[in-house]
Structure formats: structure tokens, C-alpha cells
Amino acid sequence: MCELLGMSANVPTDICFSFTALALRGGRTGPHKDGWGITFYEGKGCRTFKDPQPSHSSPIARLVREYPIKSCAVVSHVRQANRGAVSLENTHPFTRELWGRNWTFAHNGQLEGYLSLPTGRYCPVGQTDSEYAFCWLLHRLQERYPTEPESAAELFRFIADCADALRERGVFNMLLSDGRYVMAYCSTHLHWITRRAPFGKATLVDEDVAIDFQAETTPNDVVSVIATQPLTCDESWQRIAPGEYVLFCLGERQA
Amino acid sequence: MCELLGMSANVPTDICFSFTALALRGGRTGPHKDGWGITFYEGKGCRTFKDPQPSHSSPIARLVREYPIKSCAVVSHVRQANRGAVSLENTHPFTRELWGRNWTFAHNGQLEGYLSLPTGRYCPVGQTDSEYAFCWLLHRLQERYPTEPESAAELFRFIADCADALRERGVFNMLLSDGRYVMAYCSTHLHWITRRAPFGKATLVDEDVAIDFQAETTPNDVVSVIATQPLTCDESWQRIAPGEYVLFCLGERQA
């Protein structure tokens, strides 16, 4: 299995604190040594740092931990390979264009029978069930909505229906973003938290690292974080029920 | 205008030396301060580092200069914006999937009338003439070859025909790669060099940095580098004539 990390914020916010926890699980406090990746949106653009090396020892992961890249939408993943070799083309997140937007996807779980899913114009590059599922999802979206639908609520409900279908084939925890929205679909384990004023302090579960969010934020900041398991030991994380999803936009929960 | 840098090699090779020159032109020895990017292939996978900040001062560019990422196919670009704002979505290289492969594109030049080019299923995300031209090119490829053609020579001749058509709309110097082939199409300025045994020494034009390739290579290595302007002052670079292209695979020139 793998671990997921996502963020949605109303002002560009760095994710160094949370990524530190995730990166440690990539081969040190966790077994997810088979690569890692993180995608930061800035406007309609996005950039992905990824490495098939374990995140706890990757020089690129160190840059991401230490250099605060600020973003309103982030999707990240550390991998423990099941389907597909340890290689760059099998390293999440995956990004593809739909309706002139970059869509970014990361998956935790394992699917059966995924090779029979039609993917239309979206051809997988690597060998993972995850990228296959992503291509199928985009193909379904593009068939259902040749142009971008007006209602985001309707769009993400349709995506959740597609995710329900994938969940019938195995375990399918997913993070998905188009740079504005960050969606978390839960099959087994996903948690989230929204931080807003008055900000407090928090301590990582994985290492004796604490942060005082008050010192890092302004009173208007709203920042939601999604993770497979809670990343801090002194805050109240919400569990997403299996088969449910949460949707964030600019830090606020939409659904 | 912008500067391009590409590499094709028969063994995974780092590009730190050449990228150092390019990065300096990004705001210090050259005016290309409006962002930079570099794509490294590893197998069918690729990863891109990009930043809308000037490359000479970007912490991410410093990582790329100092951390040797080894690859057999690299495409890089430093930008001086003309069409499209300075933003991440307008920062080259651009990567899209075709036939289950990642295609990566970078452009130096400026095109007129590009908004009338049909792009089919490839919708631009940003506002540059460059990404528009790339989307049109992929659309043309996918129309002409619904599945990947067997002959790479034929494929790249067709791509060159498309590039000829773009050159009629302005200046169109291009680097294009699918991870195996690296193609350089020249509209005004592009140079290349192939290094092989016996390897010698070389000194950068832009800074007093020298390298002894003999110490960095094995006798079987073949490495070709493509750049807008020669990067070293003591080697013989070949100029590509306007309207011509060169194609490399695993370091060796194919056409």
C-alpha cells in the first residue's frame, strides 16, 4: 500500500511540515520505500517532483522538505509497490490534461481486472493499476462531458460514482485535483483536518517535530490537509467513511 | 527569445555541466529571466523541474546543477517571455502523452496566427504560442498516425513537415523527445556536438568552468548535446541550417 497527502488552502501555503511526516514514512517510519511524488499547483500550471528512490533519503525530497513552495492545491504520494515495477513511469502522482486543465491523481490501494477498463484517448504510459484507473476515469469524464460542466458539485458526484465502480475491483483511496478543487475519495483509510484561526500548535506523529501555525499564518488563512493516517498527534482529524468523499476548494470543504 | 538545451546519450549521463551554462543565461549572462525548465527521461517515465523564477537564482535550478540526475534523453529551456505571462503554466518544457509515451517539447521563437491552429483533443493549458503549436503538432500526429508508426525515420520526417508549416508563421526552433529520440528543428539558431572517445576537455563560454570529460565517462559513451548557441569555447559545434533538423537516438545522429 501507499500513503496519500493532499492540501487545499485559500492562500498559497507551503506543505513542508506535513511532507516531512510523509517523507519519513517513505522508508524510515513506514515501509513506503518505492518512490514518492508531489504536485504543486500555481494557477493553472503545476509542477511535480518525483523520485523512484525512497523519500527519506532522496535529495529531491530534501529540497521539497526544506524549500517552501507555496500552493493552494497539492497532491502527494509515497509508494509501496504492488502492481508495476519501481520506476519513474510508475511513480505517482500522474497528471493529464482535460478541458484545458491539468488533472492530478494519486491512488492508494490495489485493483483487480483493471486491464479490461477502456481508456479511450488516455493511454497509460506505465504499468500500474493506478494510472490505468486514472486514464479510465478521464476517459469516462470526457465521454460524459465533452466540455467542462458548469456545476462542480455535479462533476465531482459523477467522479465519485466512477470511484464507487473502481472500489468494486479492490481498494481505491484517491486524491484528485484540477488545481482549484481537491477531492479525497475513501475506500479504506483517509483522514482530513481544516486549520483556521485561532491557530494552535501541532506535533508530528512520526518525529519529534512541532509547529506553531500561529507564527506561520494570517488570521484569514484556511488550510485543509488530507492524509491516509493523521499526521499529528495533538489535533482532531476527521475520518472519511469508506465509499464517501470530501471535496475542498480554497481550503473550505464543499461536500 | 529563449534558449534551448537538449541531450541524447547511450548511457544515462548527467547534464550538470551544460545546464550550468544554460542556467547562467537565465538572468545573469543572458536575458532569459522569465523561468526555466528541464525534463529528464528514465525509461518511459520522465520528470520535469521547472520554475517561473530566473534560473540563475532558483533553488530548484541549483539542485539540478548540483545533483547529477542521469538520463539518456533531456530537454531544457530558459525563457524570455514574449507571448503569455510569466507563470508556471507558460513555462517550458511541455509534456503530453501520445501512443502511450510521454512527448516533451520546448520552443524558441515567436509565431503569428497560432490561435487558428486546430488542436483537436490536445487543449492548451497556458497562453503561449509554444504550447499551442505543440498541441497542434500532437493533433496532427494523432490524425496522421492513429497508432504509432513503425518507421521512426518516417515519423520524424512528418514532424519536420509540420515544423516547416509552423516556421511559415514566424520563428520556430524546437526540441522534441519521446524519451528515445531527441529531435532538434532549426528555424534560426541551433547547434549540436557529439562527444565520444577519445574524450577531451571543454570550457564553458559563460563562466570559467572547465570539465575533463575523460574523467567522467567510459570509452563507450556517446553523448550528443544540442543548444541554441555553442556552450563551450574550445570544441567544434555543428550549426543546423534553417529549415533542417537533426535526430538523435542513444547519442548517435540518425538524420
Automatic annotation (TrEMBL), chains A, B:
Keyword Transferase among record annotations: yes
Protein known as: Predicted glutamine amidotransferase
Key words of the record: Glutamine amidotransferase, Transferase
Upper lineage: Bacteria, Pseudomonadati, Pseudomonadota, Gammaproteobacteria, Enterobacterales
Cited SUPFAM superfamilies: N-terminal nucleophile aminohydrolases (Ntn hydrolases)
One MF annotation (Gene Ontology) recorded for this entry: transferase activity
Pfam family, one: GATase_4
Keyword Flavoprotein: no
Domain Glutamine amidotransferase type-2 intervals: 2-255
CDD domains, sorted: YafJ
Originating organism: Edwardsiella tarda (strain FL6-60)
